Amino acid sequence: MTEKYDLHCHSNHSDGELSVAALFELAAEREITDLALTDHDTLAGMPSAAKAAADNGIKLIHGLELSATWRGQLLHIVGLGVDPENPQLKAGVAENKQRRSDRASLMVADFAEHGIDLAEEVDRLLNDAVPTRPHFAQALINLGYAKDKKQAFKRYLVRGKPGFVPLQWPSIEDIAAWVNAAGGIAVLAHPMRYKFTRTKLIMLIEEMQTAGIQGIEVSTPVTDPQQITMLAKLAVQYDLLGSMGSDFHSPDQPWARLGFAEPLPPQVTPVWSAL
Ligand code: AMP
Ligand code: MN
Ligand code: MN
Ligand code: MN
User: Fold this and answer.
1) pTM
2) CA distances from 269 to 207, 215, 260 (A)
3) To the nearest 10°, the Cα dihedral for 205, 211, 215, 220?
4) Cα–Cα distances in Å, from 120 out to 135, 142, 152?
5) What are φ and ψ of residue 166, in 5° steps?
6) Which residues are found with C-beta within 5 Å of the ion, ligand 3?
7) Distance, CA of 227 to CA of 237 (rounded, Å)
8) Which residue CA neighbors atom 3 of ligand 1 most closely?
9) Over the stretch 116-140, which tens digit does the pLDDT of each residue have?
10) 138, 153, 246, best to mutate for ligand 1 pocket (most atoms within 8 Å of CB)
11) Per-residue pLDDT tens for 168-186?
12) Residue of the nearest CA to atom 16 in ligand 1?
């Protein structure tokens, strides 16, 4: 059987819509053989993922997506092949979760100052998940303040708008240290999303190497063929492992369908060869 990898997706333990069980059922339908569950700043989905993977004959890669701050910019770093019981990683995840909880309280307060009471609806939606801005976006939709998530992220939740609370995340060195301590590989998520100039992207890649981030996502469903070629070249040039993943959150997002990233160009060393 040919392998089909998706190394970036979300469940309802963070801002995904599907339960872990439903996510793995969908992965089986899509004939994915190796799936990394990578919820934001949490490992809470790992026990149910182990069961769901076994039930569906899929190989589970233990993962997560950690938030980092680099030169004032929010970056996402995916950790793959981690030991979810590693104490150093668990402590780091707890730290990021705490930042998220504290930010959520401040966001509720900021909305209240703007006459928008989201407390109850956000609590209801969270249901033990780590709090993310998409939960607030959904609460805004449910209460009639926005028609969809795009609009919610335009009118609220971003710099200069109600509900925006800036957050200083750990450095990329700290994030890489947690992932590496847990035996995992740290990978820069969706490098085109940050809209960096080429110079800045290369500056980041050079700093990633000393920080201990060994991989980069080369293929996602929203990375076009020229971008894939460009990222593959950088991966080869800087000796980075290449990853691919859909960043699936919900069946309602046709631009990020589970299992739909293009295969890695052959010159790239795939991250799974090192897992
Ligand atoms: P957070 O990590 O809580 O700050 O939220 C970031 C998450 O919000 C990302 O992982 C995306 O899933 C989601 N997101 C960011 N911008 C948008 C947008 N414009 N529309 C929909 N979802 C978004
Ligand atoms: Mn997300
Ligand atoms: Mn991300
Ligand atoms: Mn993601």
Assistant:
1) 0.97
2) 20, 10, 20
3) -60
4) 12, 12, 18
5) -65, 145
6) 76, 189
7) 15
8) 132
9) 999 999 999 999 899 999 999 999 9
10) 153
11) 999 999 999 999 999 999 9
12) 153
